[in-house]
Description:
Strand order of the largest sheet: 33-39-38-35-36
CATH superfamily of the largest domain: YVTN repeat-like/Quinoprotein amine dehydrogenase
Shape: globular
CATH topology of the largest domain: Methylamine Dehydrogenase, Chain H
Oligomer: single chain
Amino acid sequence: MSLRSRHCLCAALLLLGGVFVSAGRSQFLEAVIPVGDTPTDVLWNPASNKVYTANNQDGTVSVIAGATNQVIATVRVADYPTFLCYNSVGNKVYATCGDPDWLYVIDGVGDTVIRRVRMRGYPTTMVFNATMNKLYVLCYDDQMVRVYDGSADTLVAEVWLGFTPGTLLWHPVTNRVFCSLYGTDSVLTIDCAVDQVTERLAVGSHPYPMCWNPMNDFVYVDSDGGIRVLTAAGDSVVDVVAADALCMCFVPYPNKLYAIANRTEVIDCVTQAVTDSLAYEGNAALCDTIRGKVYSAATYPGQCYVFDARMDTLLTTIPLGTSPQAICWNRTNSRVYIVDAMDDAVYVIRDTSVGIGESGLATLCPRRASACIISGTLSWTGGRPANLVDLCGRVIAELRPGSNDLSRLSPGVYVAREEGSREHTKVVKLR
Length: 431
């Protein structure tokens, strides 16, 4: 589906109530939450434990309490909000609105619009650089990435791409933004320190989805003819995997990638080979790294496949609406949220199983990393400060030499990397 075709979706007139469903399994459909007209994106705010949906056809953003599954606010923005992004430094939520061109900034505490920024060039997807507190916005028609200061939300740089763009990925270790150019055969790499293109790498025609593997620092990008494995600097292709993907997610059990399109391909990220090919399609996916589950949403018929990520086996299939668009995970309440554009609803899947045992942690360790399990305090022995990042690449905390209190963080798997070094690395499981 093209970016513009999302504006042409017709919303169904089905009235959905807050239906709660019980089931005799650990993953089950807990609720169906009515939101605005034609939701196209969803994100979780970990600081406030709220879920946000971009309701494309009625110009609103719905806010859902992560603890209760109740809609607690409806924020009016401009027409056609399509994509959302979370600012982890300032606890703000960004929404791009394509017609007219606006960037809306929502306060993550009060859920009110605190700023609207006039844009141009049809703004679409975004990534937030937590290291430098900057927002990178892909402007489709202008073939440009616009960079905004994360505090004042003002324009600080423009990076011209020259071709039809696809999507963005921020690499927190090298502090670079990768941009796939769907209209050509290349991926561009932007150095975030100077906001200039430093690399342009041929990866095969029509590159689009990308995924970062924090264990080996490689970036995976799908294009015609397979998935290319790129170095962290984006300056060379180290391998090609014979698989296709509409979406990808990293799975640390034990260092692999789920590449999902008409089938679900499991890639061993050490050998860069497909080890399993499962007969399940999907267009949006994520990994619950606490419980070792992969959730993959598929259309026609709409359903969510739940996999055991350690055994690569299907656990259950959960029915959805006909047009699931995007997915996010609430690690605090063990919930997965999937927005359905035709049903004007959010499907909530609950997992009541326990987390993976300590014995599973050994499989998380790459060759250059050591592992530790902590209950709230981490002693960082590196000689320099380090960033603690989650498995989506977001910087969660800064570590200083000595004792660091991490009790405010949610349980999960994180990667600690010393600034300026890719050798001093530690995989941290917080419980």
